[in-house]
Amino acid sequence: MENNNSYIWSRSSFLSVESQSSSWCSEDLLTSPPSPPPPPRMYKPCFVCQDKSSGYHYGVSACEGCKGFFRRSVQKNMVYTCHRDRNCIINKITRNRCQYCRLQKCFAAGMSKESVRNDRNKRKGHKEAVKMTIMETYELSAELGLIVEKICRAHRETFPSLCQLGKYTTNSSAEQRIQLDLGLWDKFSELATKCIIKVVEFAKRVPGFTGLTIADQITLLKAACLDILILRICTRYTPDQDTMTFSDGLTLTRTQIHNAGFGPLTDQVFSFAGQLLPLQMDDTESGLLSAICLVSGDRQDLEEPSKVEVLQEPLLEALKVYSRRRRPSMPLMFPKALMKITDLRTISAKGAERVVTLKMEIPGSLPPLIAEMLEDLQNLQMTLLLGSPGGFVVSIFLKQLFNENLKQSKHSFSYTSVEANTDDKR
After folding, report:
1. Is residue 308 part of a domain?
2. Rounded to two decimals, what is the model's pTM?
3. Could you write out the three-class secondary structure of 17-62?
4. pLDDT tens digit string along 17-43?
5. Can you give the CATH number for the domain in which 114 is found?
6. Distance CA 180, CA 256 (A)
7. % of the chain residues with pLDDT over 90
C-alpha cells in the first residue's frame, strides 16, 4: 500500500513538473525575440576598379559597371586605343578615361571571354525556346491558311503596292492651301471612282461575301467602302516627303491633297497614316483588316447580321494568328490594328460630311458612284426593288457585283437598269 502511494505521488510529481516545463517552454517561445536576418553577403571589392562588387561575374568579383563594360566589349569585338603608355591607372574614378587599359585590366583580373559567350548563348537559347513556343501556339490551320492566301491575293490584285507604282507628281496648287483646286478635284474624283470599283472587286473575293443577300452585300459595301479607301491610301504614305500616292502613281503633297477636296479632313487622314507606320503592316494584314472592316455585323439595316458575324470570326482569328506569328515579340499588334477600325469609322463619318460641303463648292454634280457610296441608304436603290417576275432593278454597286458594264464618261458613270434572273438573287 505504501509502495502504491509512493508510485502515485511520483507519477503526480512527474506530471506536475512536465506541465510546468511545457508552460515554461511555451512562455519562452512567445517571449523570445525573432532571430535576426542573415547578414548580407559580402564580396571582395571589384578586381578591376576596386568599386563595390555586386557578385562574381565572368570568373571574378566585379562591380556592375565593369561587368557590363566587359560583356559589351567581348560581344561587339571592340578594339580600343590607349592615348598614353598603355599603363593607365584604373580605379572607381578613372575607369572611364581609358577603355583600352580597363579592358586589359579585366583580362588581367581573370575575366573570361568564354563566360560571356556561354552566358549569351544561354539567353539566346531561352529566347529561341520562347519564340518556338509562341510559334507553336499560334499555328494557322489549313482553313485559316486558305483564308489568308485568298485575302492576300485579292488585296494585291486590286491594290498595287507603293514599290509597284511609277510615281509622278504635279505642280498644281502645291504652294499654299486654297479652298478647292478644280483641276486636282477632277483628277481625284476620277481616281476615286476607279478605286471604288477595285474595292468592290476585292469584296467579291472575300470568302463568303457573295453568299450574303444582295441587299446585305450592298449595305456592307456602302458602309465600309470609305473606310477601306482611307486605309488603302494611308498605307501609301511616305513620311519623309509627307506625300500620299494614288493607284495610278499620282503623288500629292499634304497641301495638294487638301486642295483636291479633302479640305479640313486632310490633317486627320495624314495623322492616321502616321499612326499606322509603327504597326508595319504588310499586304496580308492590310487585306485582312480591310476584310474585317467590310464584314461587320454591327452595320445598320442588315437583313442577316448574325450571318455576317459568322463570316467575320475566321477573319479576326486569321489576323490574330498571322500577326502573332509574324511578330512574336509584339503581342499587342492585333488589338492595336483592330482599334484602327474605330479611327477609320470616325474619319469616314467626317468624310461623308465633307462631301456635303463639296457639293456646294464644285460646279455640277458628284460622280454617281461616289455619290451613291456616300448618300443616305434610304434615298438610294440599295435594296432589291421588285419588278416583273423575271427580274429586278439594282444600283451601281450591284452592277459591279454582277460585272455589268458601266457606261463611263470622262469623270462620271451613268445609271442604267439591269435585268437579272430571279435565280441570281443570291
Report:
1. yes
2. 0.58
3. HHHHHHHHHHHHHHHCCCCCCCCCCCCCCCCCCCCCCCEEECCEEE
4. 444 444 444 444 445 556 666 655 666
5. 3.30.50.10
6. 9
7. 37
CA dihedral of residues 240, 244, 250, 253 (deg, nearest 10): -70
CA atoms within 13 A on the CB side of 71: 16
The 10s digit of each residue's pLDDT in 209-268 is: 999 999 999 999 989 999 999 999 999 999 999 999 888 888 899 998 888 888 889 999
State how far the alpha carbon of 51 is from the alpha carbons of 93, 106, 120, in Å: 9, 13, 25
Nearest CA among 223, 261, 217 for reference residue 384? 217
Where among 135, 152, 180 does a domain terminate?
A: 135
| Co-location of 188 and 110 in the same domain | no
pLDDT of residue 419: 32
Same domain membership, residue 235 and residue 303: yes
Q: Is 348 exposed, middle or buried (0-12, 13-18, 19+ CB in 10 A)?
A: buried
CATH, residue 252: 1.10.565.10
